[in-house]
């Protein structure tokens, strides 16, 4: 019997929005420089074996480790310290901040003349989140969107330290390591940021869920965007399965509540999936795979187990 987790839906709350001041009073000094060699950090990522149950995270078995040289800090590209590692200006959005943290966020963007976005889009460079002292945060829709776009997911404490030192500092020590739903150290945020590859480029995905059945995302369009951002072919009509590229695994993704039709239609759908080698899974397979930036086993989310 498969057990499912609950993803925090804090991004849907009204208080999530941060009011941006109309006036930008100061800009950061332009004489701040950084030595790229001094900012290169060698770290180790642990590759995890997926547990049989999402709830039994303590049973994860460590398989091996891979040493990665991380040279993608905001500080490595430009001496103009309100630009990021891609050469673009910093554009920040927030997720699940409390009122005190929102106040610090407003102070930060005013002090350093930083741009903001209310949503996660192509201009966004960082998602600033609430977290505990272990760099673990609630898993929200914005965070999943940020991971799909290979963005920095960073603790609000980075803002505080920048304000304290009166300069933009290296954000990597404040990068989120895990979340309260899937585990404290799964590393999906960093794993996504350090690669330009597409997570789902070997899959064709057909979505059969409604906007009220895909939390923590707010609309089916947001889920469709995730699918395409991760490199999968988005199949809009299930009848297309007969003509699809056989080099891609076809996946039918149902909503949180599973199949909504009667038993006869359910059986017909599953028979068709079996005939054309289509995997039929709950939407949690898609969301957790993106959040961990690691393809999850179909068996844990097979619709027959729901």
TrEMBL record:
<dbReference type="InterPro" id="IPR031099">
    <property type="entry name" value="BRCA1-associated"/>
</dbReference>
<keyword id="KW-0677">Repeat</keyword>
<dbReference type="Pfam" id="PF00533">
    <property type="entry name" value="BRCT"/>
</dbReference>
<feature type="domain" description="BRCT">
    <location>
        <begin position="86"/>
        <end position="176"/>
    </location>
</feature>
<dbReference type="GO" id="GO:0004842">
    <property type="term" value="F:ubiquitin-protein transferase activity"/>
</dbReference>
<dbReference type="GO" id="GO:0045944">
    <property type="term" value="P:positive regulation of transcription by RNA polymerase II"/>
</dbReference>
<dbReference type="GO" id="GO:0031436">
    <property type="term" value="C:BRCA1-BARD1 complex"/>
</dbReference>
<feature type="domain" description="BRCT">
    <location>
        <begin position="195"/>
        <end position="303"/>
    </location>
</feature>
<keyword id="KW-0539">Nucleus</keyword>
<dbReference type="GO" id="GO:0000724">
    <property type="term" value="P:double-strand break repair via homologous recombination"/>
</dbReference>
<keyword id="KW-0227">DNA damage</keyword>
<dbReference type="InterPro" id="IPR001357">
    <property type="entry name" value="BRCT_dom"/>
</dbReference>
<keyword id="KW-0234">DNA repair</keyword>
<dbReference type="InterPro" id="IPR036420">
    <property type="entry name" value="BRCT_dom_sf"/>
</dbReference>
<dbReference type="GO" id="GO:0070531">
    <property type="term" value="C:BRCA1-A complex"/>
</dbReference>
<protein>
    <recommendedName>
        <fullName>BRCT domain-containing protein</fullName>
    </recommendedName>
</protein>
């Amino acid at each position: 019997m498969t057990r499912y987790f609950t993803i925090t839906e804090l991004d849907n709350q009204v208080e999530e929005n941060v009011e941006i001041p109309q006036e930008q009073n100061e800009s950061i000094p332009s004489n701040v420089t950084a030595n790229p060699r001094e900012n290169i950090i060698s770290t180790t990522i642990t590759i995890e074996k997926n547990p049989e149950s999402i709830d039994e995270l303590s049973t994860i078995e460590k398989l091996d480790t891979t040493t990665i040289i991380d040279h993608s800090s905001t500080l490595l590209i430009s001496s103009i310290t309100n630009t990021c590692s891609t050469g673009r200006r910093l554009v920040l959005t927030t997720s699940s901040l409390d009122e005190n943290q929102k106040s610090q966020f407003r102070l930060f963007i005013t002090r350093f003349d930083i741009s903001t976005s209310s949503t996660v889009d192509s201009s966004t460079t960082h998602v600033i989140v609430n977290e505990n002292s272990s760099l673990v945060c609630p898993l929200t829709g914005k965070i999943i969107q940020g991971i799909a776009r290979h963005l920095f997911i960073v603790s609000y404490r980075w803002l505080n330290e920048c304000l304290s030192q009166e300069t933009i500092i290296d954000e990597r020590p404040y990068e989120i390591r895990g979340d309260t739903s899937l585990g404290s150290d799964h590393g999906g945020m960093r794993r996504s940021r350090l690669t330009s590859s597409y997570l789902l480029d070997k899959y064709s995905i057909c979505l059969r869920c409604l906007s009220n059945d895909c939390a923590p995302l707010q609309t089916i369009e947001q889920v469709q965007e995730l699918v395409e951002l991760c490199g999968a072919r988005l199949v809009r009509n299930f009848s297309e399965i007969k003509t699809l590229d056989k080099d891609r695994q076809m996946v039918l993704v149902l909503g949180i509540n599973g199949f909504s039709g009667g038993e006869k239609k359910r059986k017909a759908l599953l028979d068709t999936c079996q005939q054309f080698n289509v995997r039929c899974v709950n939407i949690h397979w898609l969301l957790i795979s993106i959040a961990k930036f690691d393809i999850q086993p179909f068996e844990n989310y097979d619709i027959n187990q729901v």
